[in-house]
């Protein structure tokens, strides 16, 4: 079956040169964007109930841009002036670059991993006398706390923001040829909003092994997947599939 419409379960890209827009023009398909999940901040009062006093920490571990936003939001709500001496340990260059939204980069002590948390851990171990705070979502990959425990450093995890299922009721009577998912939470949202969802001729595209597992556990069929050697990105996987499907 030919592909004419695609729904990507993420916010619309803010950059004009997004590969999704290129794909839309090149393959002459309609691509809509809609977040199936969204992030909501936890109040300063709730964080105090987690027994968190920001003045007790000398270093912050930041694993995402959301963590950056919500750490500084909470600091402002608590009227806590983040000291210039605070150390920032960022999981990736993208997170470190985003940190510039809140601090003057060259005047702060910022330590950056290459891509994942495992690559950041040697830097954390090097500063084992610091008191680390890990501001996170309510859904944290076990690898992060497990790694910190193994390092033997002083650290505390606190929920600064939560992943919440979005209301998709307005899509009840809308159908797409391909649905694109990037996390198990997206699949959870699909069935929360549409408990009786049947795949039928809808193609499902997924990114990552955990998302594939979540799709299969729901008894659904994975038609398109990434990343792979042939298709390192979702847009490449989609383009290859569409070329084949629309050739007939």
Question: Can you describe what's shown?
Answer:
- It is a single chain.
- The chain starts with a strand and ends with a helix.
- The chain has two domains: 5-36 and 167-245, Rossmann fold (3-Layer(aba) Sandwich), CATH 3.40.50; 40-163, Rossmann fold (3-Layer(aba) Sandwich).
- By secondary structure, the chain is α/β, with parallel strands linked by helices.
- The strands form two sheets. The protein has a six-stranded mixed beta sheet with strand order 3-8-7-4-5-6.
- The chain contains nine helices and eleven strands.
- The longest helix is centred in the first third of the chain and has 13 residues, at 65-77.
- The mean pLDDT is 94.
- Helix 7 packs parallel to helix 8.
Could you tell me the number of beta strands?
A: 11
Describe the biggest sheet?
6 strands, mixed
Estimated structural class: alpha/beta
Helix content: 25-40%
N-end to C-end Cα span: 8 Å
CATH-derived architecture of the largest domain? 3-Layer(aba) Sandwich
Number of helices: 9
What is the CATH first-level class name of the largest domain? Alpha Beta
Tally of domains: 2
- Mean pLDDT across residues: 94
Low-confidence spans: none
Shape: elongated
CATH topology of the largest domain: Rossmann fold
Rg value: 21 Å
Series of secondary-structure elements, N-terminal to C-terminal: EHEEHEHEHEHEHEEHEHEH
């Amino acid at each position: 079956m030919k592909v004419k419409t695609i729904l990507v379960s993420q916010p619309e890209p803010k950059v004009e040169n997004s590969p999704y827009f290129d794909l839309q023009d090149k393959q002459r398909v309609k691509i809509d964007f809609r977040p199936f999940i969204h992030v909501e901040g936890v109040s300063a009062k709730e964080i105090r109930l987690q027994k968190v006093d920001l003045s007790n920490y000398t270093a912050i571990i930041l694993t995402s841009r959301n963590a950056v936003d919500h750490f500084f939001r909470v600091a402002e709500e608590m009227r806590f002036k983040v000291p210039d001496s605070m150390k920032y340990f960022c999981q990736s260059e993208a997170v470190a670059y985003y940190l510039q939204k809140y601090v003057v980069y060259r005047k702060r002590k910022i330590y950056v991993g290459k891509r994942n948390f495992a690559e950041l851990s040697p830097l954390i171990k090097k500063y084992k006398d610091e008191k680390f705070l890990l501001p996170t979502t309510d859904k944290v990959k076990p690898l992060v706390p497990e790694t910190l425990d193994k390092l033997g450093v002083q650290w505390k995890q606190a929920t600064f923001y939560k992943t919440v299922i979005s209301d998709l009721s307005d899509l009840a009577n809308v159908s797409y040829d391909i649905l694109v998912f990037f996390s198990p939470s997206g699949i959870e949202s699909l069935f929360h909003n549409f408990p009786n969802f049947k795949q039928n001729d809808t193609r499902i595209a997924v990114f990552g092994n955990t998302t594939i597992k979540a799709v299969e556990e729901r008894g659904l069929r994975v038609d398109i997947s990434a990343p792979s050697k042939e298709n390192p990105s979702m847009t490449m996987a989609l383009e290859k599939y569409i070329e084949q499907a629309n050739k007939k």
